[in-house]
Amino acid sequence: MPYQEDFAVEQFMDAYETKAKYNLGETCCYSLSLDDIEKLSGNRFELDRSMRLTYRDIKGSDELRTQIAALYGSSLNLDNVLVSNGAIASNYLLYYTLVGKGDHVICVDPTYSQLYSVPDMFGADVDLLKLTEEDGYIPNINTLSAMIKENTKLIIINNPNNPLGSVIPNDIMKKICQLCEKHDIYLHSDEVYRPMFHSLGPDLEVPESACTLYSKAIVTCSMSKAYSVAGIRLGWMITADKQVLRDAASRRDYNTISVSVIDDRIAQYVLKNAYKVIERNIKLCKENYQYLTEFIDKHQNDFKYVATPQGGTVCLLRIKNITNTYDFATFLAEEFNVLAVPGEAFNFPGTLRIGYGNSKDDLINGLPLLKKANDLWIARH
Ligand SMILES: Cc1ncc(COP(=O)(O)O)c(C=O)c1O
Predict the structure, then answer these.
(1) Which of 59, 143, 267, 306 is deepest in the core (most CB within 10 A)?
(2) Ligand 1 centroid vs 221 CA: distance in angstroms?
């Protein structure tokens, strides 16, 4: 059996997610019910109750895959899309399809640890490309270029980044694609937070998706974060490289067959009303981010952004006077009923990952408790 290390972020979330009163660990934009979406959009969710509940479309329905492809413009179509149980399954499937012993893989760090631990588990030789303060926490092209070896098969990026909230600008994205093309390397871009580009600032344009920039780029995304319906567990892989998609589909036959037909129908409904859902979530993230920034400004002696968030729903908060943030996050959850994920889950001790896309109520009530716990912890240690 190949060794697989524990998935620290998911385990910490699982321990407290349903118990904590205030959730500052959430990565999804405040989740929606079907009733909420009906109210938001004015459109009813219709389910054909006579539909036979069989496996149905193995790769995802034509209607859904067409809707997904349309999110990426006109260059790709339904044949470029494979549906999965969340982006987490697409990521896993992609590594299962592409990498193994003898392959070299480069992955950004910090990021969602699945992106480097699964290639490692499949036997690849994985090097981490550290995102640094000097580079604004986006990939440094010269460093990346110097890391490429004869057997580099795959480069993995995450845009917007979890946990930093940094966004790779278009010019850097294009350079990454050119580098991959020059060395004939696949590029995996986990874009699960797309299109939550709520705070890009005046000099950044909305980044293009990697799958529209490079023929060997594979993008993964889902309905979980920006579309607020993580509970339907529906994600996808999209790429111009049909061979990769065929190979992935073939492997997928062994562990998925198809996703739930009900989930497929709900995803179609949400994507039909995507404009309204995204509009609601951009507004929510903007407002909550501003609230969080005001809180940090007020308590500058204790907290600081590692990177100023530009997109996504999460950021890393430096906890200036506490080094063991794993124990502190446990204390915060146990004693104050507030969930925030320790930076240790991202190889980044001395920080907490804060999710600000959740309800404003969680922030308004959770942040003062974070400050209180911080003061108490410092007084006691
Ligand atoms: C970067 C990243 N990729 C993938 C996932 C998995 O999301 P899902 O399977 O819900 O689409 C997450 C969840 O937090 C994530 O942060």
Answers:
(1) 267
(2) 8
